[in-house]
Write a structure and sequence with these properties.
210 residues, alpha/beta, eight-stranded mixed β-sheet, six-stranded parallel β-sheet, 2 helices, 12% helix, 26% strand, globular
Amino acid sequence: MLLNKSIYILGYSGHAYVILDSLAKLNVKVLGYFDFEPCNSFDNFYDLEYKGNEKLVDLNFIDDSSYVFPSIGDNYIRIKLVQFIEENKLAQTNIIDPQAIVSNRAIIESSVYVAPGAIINSRALIKKGSIINSGATIEHECVIGEFSHIAPNSVLTGNVIIGKNTLVGANAVITPGVTIGNNVIIGAGSVVTKDIPDNSKWVGNPLRML
């Protein structure tokens, strides 16, 4: 999908660095970044051109040959960035690191990032704006809701459903058939064996609500 295309990123800090490494492996040209203000020269070790605050500049210079990608890890900020991309009718894409393993029977919607070492198996559905981070496993027939973040080395076994704007922390394990609601935080290392309601925070093994 990125063949013969170039890209701009929205946001240029921690999570963006991982995305930029993936883009380098894919030989995709990064034309610059948008952010509130330019980063200092020490942090600009990818030597990207600052294009301004995306809400304050004329975006007409971005044509159909270039994508715009939200490179922020925070779910709620990423929602706003994707809304901005859609409102301005800018082209969206996915970024899938070459070291990820993704079934050709999986479905991945727009503005999704899949990091190195991630595994997405058959008939999984990854919805818009989500992150499948380094080494995470998404087993068969899982559904990841819009703007959710599956953190490094977490494991979602078969038929797990994750709602919108939900964070599954690093090294968490979700057992088969579990449904986790919208706006949920599952803490790092947690083991989830039961359905989880919307708007809640859970940690531990055994699991407990905060």
